[in-house]
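**User:** I keep going back and forth on a fold encoding question. It is easy to fool oneself when nobody else works the same problem. Could you pick a protein and write out its sequence and tokenised fold? Could you put it straight underneath, so I can go through it closely?

**Assistant:**
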Amino acid sequence: MQTRLSAIALGLALIGLGPVFAEDIPSDVVPPKPSGRPHVCFGKHYIMTKTMAPANGIDVSFTITAEGRVENPKVITPTSYELERETVLCVSVWTYHPAMRGGQPINLPWTARVMWR
């Protein structure tokens, strides 16, 4: 539980999206950090995505690879097909400084809350 709470605090501090969760990060792993500016999604069809998105965000699980790419994004929060598609497209282009174990980059499962603006 302590690891999960620490990951939430880390995510809030780093990217300002709302809660960011780690999937049971071992104590010997340094969590990933987002590259560049904070990750917020802007819809191609702004009015549609802004009005359809839940106010508290959309949770998405994915793997951050050792290269810092997002793989296998899956929407956890039930929404419409259109909003899920836009969310997956948005999350797919995010990049991170990967998680590290013993100075080596590793793959790490991650969950983030996406806020549409």
Q: What stands out?
A: The domain at 2-114 is CATH 3.30.1150 (Fusion Protein Consisting Of Minor Coat Protein, Glycine Rich Linker, Tola, And A His Tag; Chain: A; Domain 2). The chain has one domain: 2-114. Confidence is low (pLDDT under 50) at residues 1-19.
